[in-house]
Amino acid sequence: xxxxxxxxxxxxxxxxxxxxxxxxxxxxxxxxxxxxxxxxxxxxxxxxxxxxxxxxxxxxxxxxxxxxxxxxxxxxxxxxxxxxxxxxxxxxxxxxxxxxxxxxxxxxxxxxxxxxxxxxxxxxxxxxxxxxxxxxxxxxxxxxxxxxxxxxxxxxxxxxxxxxxxxxxxxxxxxxxxxxxxxxxxxxxxxxxxxxxxxxxxxxxxxxxxxxxxxxxxxxxxxxx
Length: 225
Ligand SMILES: CC(C)(COP(=O)(O)OP(=O)(O)OC[C@H]1O[C@@H](n2cnc3c(N)ncnc32)[C@H](O)[C@@H]1OP(=O)(O)O)[C@@H](O)C(=O)NCCC(=O)NCCS
What we know:
This protein is α+β, with helices and mostly antiparallel strands. It has helices at residues 43-52, 85-101, 156-171, 189-197, and strands spanning 2-4, 7-9, 22-24, 33-37, 68-71, 77-79, 104-113, 117-128, 140-147, 179-185, 202-206, 217-223.
């Protein structure tokens, strides 16, 4: 692994034919991308990324897998971000369980740099919106994403969301999956742009519903086909 200006380069190795590997060529400012399930090799880069910015709570497969560190006066617990490699490893284990059980399918998004290996550029994950069960068994899945802080503004999230959307409709073509939701906070216009560019049309407003979510949001919906 090499590192310059905080950006870590490491092997682009994937898991072989057992798991999907999606590739997107360079397009304008968007670099060439490789998407594949998260691997242990990603842990140092993931931990470094998470120390910059706390990711959305939706990254975690189950509430009991979220890192809860601090007890506030009154007994409420405050989540803090992934702070070190141990937390990154826990998150990876949670994603591995998701692939094993089929209810959460998360891809590391890697910027392919042939000369020096790969750079972690983000994450795209599919989960069930409300129901339990394997992705594909239900009519609706939900897609979520983030882009590494240093990689933002180059169209990586829209390209990665398009790649995973095409893959999941193809991979579960004979199953019940009919539509994918994309939900973002109303005060996240960058995410709204991702939805538009990834061809997820706006469907409706999603009012705040504490304690599940605290702000109004947008629901975008992409139908199969
Ligand atoms: C939202 C997010 C995923 C966008 O990813 P991205 O790969 O930067 O996507 P794009 O390059 O297409 O940029 C989308 C918008 O971000 C804004 N943007 C542009 N450059 C930016 C930069 N350097 N830094 C932050 N935002 C930038 C612009 O509004 C852009 O829209 P535009 O293309 O109309 O100008 C990314 O900002 C992020 O990870 N945010 C934190 C996590 C999050 O909000 N996830 C979504 C939860 S629903």
